[in-house]
Amino acid sequence: MPKNSKAKKNSSISWKYSSALESVEHISISPVYNLFIGGKFVNPISKKYFYSTNPANEEKLAKIALAGKSDVNKAVLAARSAYNNVWEKMDPKERGKYIYRIARLIQEKSRELAIIESLDGGKPIRESRDIDIPLAAAHFFYYAGWADKLDYAFPGRRTSSIGVAGQIIPWNFPLLMASWKIAPALASGNTVVLKPAETTPLTALKLAEIIQESDLPPGVVNIITGDGTTGELLVNNPKVDKIAFTGSTEVGKMIINSLAPSKKKYSLELGGKAANIICEDAAIDQAVEGIINSIFFNQGHVCCAGSRLYVQESISNQIISKLHNRMDHLILGDPLDKNTDVGAINSKSQLKRIKMYLDIGKNDGGVIYQSKHSIPKKGYWCAPTLFTDISQSHRIVQEEIFGPVLAIQTFRTIDEVIAKANNSPYGLSGGIWTDKGSKIFQVSKEIRAGVIWANTFNKFDPTSPFGGYKESGIGREGGLEGLSPYVNIVNRT
User: Fold this and answer.
1) N or C: which end of the chain has fewer CB within 10 A?
2) Residue 68 backbone phi and psi in degrees, to 5
3) Number of H helices, E strands in the chain
4) Residue 8 — very low, low, confident or very high, per pLDDT cuts 50/70/90?
5) Is 416 a catalytic residue?
6) Pick the residue with more confidence: 11 or 200?
7) What pLDDT score was predicted for residue 233?
8) Predicted pLDDT at 493
9) CA-CA distance, 188 to 174, in Å (whole number)?
10) Tell me: domain 275-461, CATH 3.40.309.10, correct?
11) Quick one: which H or E segment has residue 32?
């Protein structure tokens, strides 16, 4: 036998990972979830319900209450009563103990929460288990520590709570977004009415069960489920003092217009179209992994996703070739399989939007490459995709797709790529991969974005503020800065 015949034979062997499905036997999902108001689950006055659906197989998970005007009013009144009678008057140290208790309970129930997050949202269990749930707990831990230290948070100034905070969160990180908003609001002495996204309400409702278990005073946190109309009712309720919204730029603009005549405070975390810059002196293989993480993490359902890739001209062919290979080796499939890299698209409507942009990209002359994956017959799925041969004017470069779609362009100089990166209505995040600290400092200084990552991407920490400029929002969440939207600040006399 020739020396290398065995090697040739082995190289043709096809193999794959064995399935490693996470068990669902130990989780508990009720067939029906009502509204969480005043510390109890109550039937909706509207008597209306809708279904939450598993996007991976289109199976119905639970029937969810749809809050109408009377339900929203009831939740706001419960929050107002709790604020006036209990929470505002409570010793800050005691408030901190409750927040800490919620954090510990999230940790204790982390496995169940991770599975439900993946069932309801379609994201891989590895992401829910290792990122979403630990970060949610970490935010409650972090702000529990600030509850009795507000006098030190803003030196030379005095703070007071605002009152009732109406909070509306998106479907891409349901429990994490709830934590981002609820924890600083409670630490600052406010009460909350939270509305989760229509397609992913389950972990917010499980959080309501945790809040019950923590013995948080009734009405301090209320969770009402529903659609866009429910969110609009919450925004326009006259007894709500502050609105915190995370979602699309289009809805954010509508909220601003709605709140303009009022005196309500608001903070908005909106869309993004992040520029991820790869310089010729970058560690190539590390950068390729960073690109994969920046756009295919959570199926691209990330407002700060690196959906615009700028590669220095001298290494563009090398980067694109490596990306093709890496995309083909990603595992697309069951979100509950621990091997899965790319899960299901969150909803039928979002898949339709992504497919629309794929058609737009092709019709505008872009060259498309999709990973070689078999798509399951049931559920909502999109293979990882990239476009080349595109320009700044293309819609897939300018508009937020919110899916696993990467638009690639080249550049020659740092000044050129900074100009391209800033040529966007968004300013939420960005990234640079280089071996030179001077380039990192130049890019982070000159790119108009709220968050810039260097030689990494999509790294979050409760101590770090997050938010954008331009059409990416107003205000910050996380860190010390995340307290500001929930307090009134005055100079000490």
Assistant:
1) C
2) -100, -170
3) 17, 22
4) very low
5) no
6) 200
7) 98
8) 58
9) 22
10) yes
11) strand 32-33
